[in-house]
Write a structure and sequence with these properties.
Blueprint lengths: L8 H20 L24 E2 L6 E5 L2 E2 L6 E9 L8 E5 L27 E4 L7 H4 L1 E9 L6 E6 L6 E5 L4 E2 L6 E7 L6 E7 L6 E9 L5 E8 L21 E7 L7 E10 L4 E10 L12 E4 L19 H11 L6 E4 L11 H9 L1 H4 L4 E3 L3 H4 L19 H6 L11
Parallel strand pairs: 1-9, 3-10, 18-19, 19-20
Antiparallel strand pairs: 2-4, 4-7, 5-6, 5-8, 8-9, 11-12, 12-15, 13-14, 13-16, 14-15, 16-17
Bound molecules: 2-acetamido-2-deoxy-beta-D-glucopyranose (5 copies).
One 2-acetamido-2-deoxy-beta-D-glucopyranose binds next to helix 3.
């Protein structure tokens, strides 16, 4: 982490270009992403979900509670999952599915699949059944805890035998869901195109036909005003290759961006996200705040944090926590602790390591929410956001898992003339 003044912009750009070189070479050794074949980077890619078959056992059960999450308005909650399995084995595992209905009826035949699959969407996370109880393979009983975030859809939990590479579906749980799955969530700020403009981007389940998105904002303690937001989304056929186009696909909901203009220099503003429903009622987020930029050239200290490759991890220990990117939580927590000493963050590529598993983007924007909702979170494209063969990317690898930049450029606002070239 470094602190430097805005005056040393040349130094900053030099540093950024050195870092982005590291980024490319640092991850260039990773193997290629294929749906379910395992690339050794994204843990979900180790699950051969498209090969899954039904092996339901009448005496096996999975039960999840509570049934309703976030009843106090929270956007994350803990769930307890109780498993009973008459024929337990060490490599039994529990998949978290969202939407809860992952049945074969939602599958579409695809050239990218070896056969017509029983299950065609990857779980959003998983744990081995023995995770909290090593005796599981003797007793067939286990109780697991998952921390779920609001990702606009309901959830179910499925017990598989056969390990990750040869999954057999043994039992499926009841369905649970957040009190308001469509709630506006995970705001991220970006500096606008001019010095006195801040943009706010967030996700919700509200299409513009259903509700009008906006931001209510103003100087702290003074009267607040409202600014409209634009709404974007993207579709499965916007993805360039598997797994984003196949098992990694998940509906991203709607991504809204509002432009807060004519800000006064170096002033504290408060804001909240709103949706006005057709019946005239409002849905609100919690309240956030940020400090606006100084006037260009104004004598001021600006503390800039620049990094790439931070990673994404699960606080509940899912997805082989200790093998993947646990350090990203330490980095996130340290940045949150230092937030009062930071004016802007540049995450210069390799943002979520979703690698074509779209569910991971909400989990990343949730992980960095405290940072990104308080200071501008400026992103640049890395190989893990952009690279897909024959899609115009600079490198021809599969490092984005078929996202080919579409997800990154929609999930985050960048003050570029052409969003596709950020
Ligand atoms: C399930 O449990 C019942 C009652 O113990 C037993 O009669 C039945 O055979 C079991 N089913 C299987 C498939 O093991
Ligand atoms: C739990 O299962 C996994 C996968 O089979 C295995 O690698 C791990 O050693 C097991 N853990 C315990 C405590 O038995
Ligand atoms: C799951 O989705 C399919 C396709 O939309 C639908 O036909 C089926 O009834 C759904 N199942 C449940 C349990 O909702
Ligand atoms: C990172 O965070 C984990 C979990 O809070 C903690 O156990 C670990 O000691 C931290 N590592 C470092 C290097 O601070
Ligand atoms: C990317 O993946 C495709 C199959 O999905 C494969 O044919 C191609 O060789 C891969 N490209 C690279 C550079 O590894």
């Amino acid at each position: 982490m470094r602190s430097l003044s805005f005056l040393s912009m040349e130094y900053l750009f030099l540093l950024m270009s050195i870092l982005s070189q590291c980024l490319k070479f640092g991850s260039g050794t990773a193997a290629v992403v294929h749906a379910g074949n395992g690339d050794g980077v994204q843990p979900l890619s180790k699950i051969a979900i498209h090969k899954a078959v039904y092996a339901l056992h009448e005496n096996a059960s999975v039960k999840a509670h509570p049934l309703v999450l976030g009843t106090k308005g929270g956007d994350s909650d803990w769930v307890t999952v109780e498993i009973e399995c008459p024929k337990p084995s060490e490599d039994d595992w529990i998949a978290v599915f969202s939407p809860a209905n992952f049945s074969s009826s939602i599958c579409q035949p695809s050239d990218d699949m070896e056969q017509f699959p029983d299950i065609c969407s990857a779980p959003i996370k998983y744990k081995y059944a023995n995770d909290s109880d090593a005796d599981y393979k003797k007793t067939g009983k286990s109780s697991l805890k998952f921390q779920l975030i609001n990702q606009r859809e309901d959830f179910s939990f499925a017990l598989f035998s056969g390990g990750l590479s040869d999954p057999k579906l043994v039992a499926v749980s009841n369905v649970i869901s957040f009190a308001n799955p469509k709630a506006p969530l995970y705001p991220r700020l970006s500096q606008g195109k001019s010095w006195n403009e801040m943009t706010v981007t967030w996700a919700s389940g509200y299409n513009v036909i259903e509700a009008v998105p906006f931001v209510e904002w103003g100087m702290k303690g003074e009267s607040q005003t409202r600014s409209p937001a634009g709404t974007l989304t993207f579709h499965q056929n916007d993805m360039c290759a598997p797994p984003a186009r196949t098992v990694g696909w998940r509906d991203p909901g709607f991504i809204h961006t509002s432009f807060l203009k004519d800000l006064w220099p170096s002033s504290v503003y408060t804001y909240k996200l709103g949706h006005k429903l057709v019946d005239g009622s409002f849905v609100w987020s919690k309240s956030y705040s940020f400090k606006s930029s100084p006037y260009p050239g104004q004598d001021s200290l600006q503390r800039v944090v620049i990094f790439g490759d931070m990673g994404k991890a699960e606080r509940d220990g899912s997805n082989e926590y200790s093998n993947y990117q646990p350090g990203s939580l330490n980095t996130t927590d340290q940045l949150i602790k230092d937030l009062k000493n930071i004016d802007i963050v540049f995450h210069i590529g390799d943002i979520t390591y979703a690698n074509g598993y779209i569910s991971q983007w909400d989990q990343f924007t949730s992980q960095v929410e405290r940072i990104a909702s308080t200071v501008p979170y400026m992103i640049a494209s890395g190989n893990h956001e952009r690279d897909a063969p024959n899609s115009g990317s600079f490198y021809d690898g599969n490092d984005s898992g078929g996202e080919c930049g579409v997800v990154a450029e929609t999930m985050f606002y960048v003050p570029a003339e052409n969003r596709a070239k950020f």
